């Protein structure tokens, strides 16, 4: 067998256009020396998938989207040393390569780990991208440890990254977690995950200072546009902010008076720069162990049993709605 089924795009289109995502047949990818070939059993859809699909230029070559995946290794490259054929794995992919919305996917072993034994492929696929983003934010950008205290403000806390960040912060650090959530269902979700306090992002400055009168120490920002003045008001001197978005014309000068540090987090940096890639395998392995010990749970809230263009279009619609709690997964 030299070809495989996949779901691809040829140009950026609204998700309600049937051509936005199409079922295609393409060659099975060749393996690089450190690659494993994964038979993909389940994928998750993230905001980055929506952004990438919408910004695609027209092409005659199919672009396969998708990052989060869980599946089984079917083949390995000649220099693979950490994984083997038959291993059940999870990972978050590489933005510079074709994606996971396919029957088979080639990915560097160093950003792949064995999935939690206690989770199905469906439940595993919800976690890798958000876990890496949350882990790198907490322990690399913020440099938190088990002895760290202070207040961590997690914006968009009911989303994929926030849902994992709450769990990791409560189990591996000593910070108090303040979560933003504006609806009854999203508030209940973040409290159940372990948030110590919940505030409404529509009244962010007043409510943040109500629960942390002297300001917060750490801010996770998935929506930075229009918030910099508020961040300057609610963050303590020498505090830290980590952002995952990139709004145009972002002016950080209001943060200078308090010497507030601004960090960027892009979980694709290691693969893009071929820099310390094995760190992502290690952290995914550590979180797999936490899942199997019952310390972290899957964040899947919607599962679509239709690994096709139709199923993935529905998943994209749900993520685009902006009302998702946790993660949506598409599985075979």
Oligomer: single chain
Strand content: 25-35%
Annotation field: number of helices = 10
The shape is: globular
What's the N-to-C terminus distance?
A: 20 Å
Structural class: alpha/beta
How is the main sheet built? 7 strands, mixed
**SSE order, as H and E?**
EEEHEEEEEHHEHEHEHEHEEHHEHE
Ranges where pLDDT stays below 50 over 5 or more residues in a row are: none
Chain-averaged pLDDT? 97
Helix fraction, binned, reads 25-40%
Number of strands: 16
**What is the gyration radius calculated from CA atoms?**
20 Å
Characterization of this structure:
By secondary structure, the protein is of the alpha/beta class. Helices cover 29% and strands 26% of the residues. The chain has helices at 47-54, 121-125, 128-141, 160-172, 184-193, 204-211, 228-234, 269-273, 278-292, 309-320; strands at residues 3-9, 22-27, 35-45, 63-64, 69-76, 88-91, 104-108, 112-114, 151-154, 176-180, 197-199, 216-221, 235-243, 261-264, 300-304, 327-331. Strands 3, 5, 6, 7, 8, 15 and 16 form a seven-stranded mixed beta sheet that branches. A six-stranded parallel beta sheet has the order 11-10-9-12-13-14, sandwiched between helices. It has a three-stranded antiparallel beta sheet with strand order 2-1-4, with helices on one face. β12, α7 and β13 form a beta-alpha-beta unit. The longest helix is centred in the C-terminal third of the chain and has 15 residues, at 278-292. The mean pLDDT is 97.
């Amino acid at each position: 067998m030299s070809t495989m089924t996949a779901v691809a795009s040829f140009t950026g289109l609204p998700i309600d256009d049937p051509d936005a995502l199409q079922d295609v047949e393409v060659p099975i990818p060749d393996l690089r020396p450190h690659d494993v070939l994964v038979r993909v059993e389940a994928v998750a859809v993230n905001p980055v998938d929506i952004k990438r699909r919408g910004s695609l230029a027209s092409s005659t070559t199919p672009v396969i989207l998708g990052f989060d995946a869980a599946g089984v290794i079917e083949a390995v490259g000649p220099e693979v040393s950490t994984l083997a054929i038959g291993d059940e794995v999870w990972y978050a992919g590489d933005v510079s390569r074709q994606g996971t919305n396919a029957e088979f996917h080639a990915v560097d072993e160093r950003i792949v780990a064995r999935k939690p034994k206690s989770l199905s492929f469906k439940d595993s696929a919800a976690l890798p991208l958000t876990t890496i983003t949350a882990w790198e934010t907490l322990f690399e950008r913020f440099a938190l440890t088990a002895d760290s205290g202070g207040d961590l403000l997690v914006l968009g806390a009911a989303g994929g990254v926030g849902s994992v960040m709450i769990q990791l912060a409560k189990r591996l650090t000593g910070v108090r977690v303040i979560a933003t959530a504006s609806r009854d269902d999203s508030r209940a979700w973040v409290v159940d995950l372990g948030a110590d306090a919940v505030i409404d992002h529509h009244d962010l400055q007043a409510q943040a200072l109500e629960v942390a009168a002297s300001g917060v120490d750490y801010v996770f920002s998935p929506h930075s546009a229009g918030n910099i003045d508020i961040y300057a008001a609610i963050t303590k001197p020498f505090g830290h902010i980590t952002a995952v978005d990139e709004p145009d014309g972002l002016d950080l000068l209001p943060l200078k008076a308090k010497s507030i540090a601004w960090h960027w987090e892009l979980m694709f940096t290691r693969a893009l720069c071929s820099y310390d890639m094995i760190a992502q395998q290690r952290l995914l392995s550590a979180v797999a162990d936490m899942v199997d010990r019952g310390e972290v749970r899957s964040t899947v809230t919607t599962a679509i049993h239709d690994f096709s263009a139709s199923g993935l279009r529905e998943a994209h619609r749900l993520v685009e709605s902006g009302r998702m709690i946790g993660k949506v997964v598409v599985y075979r």
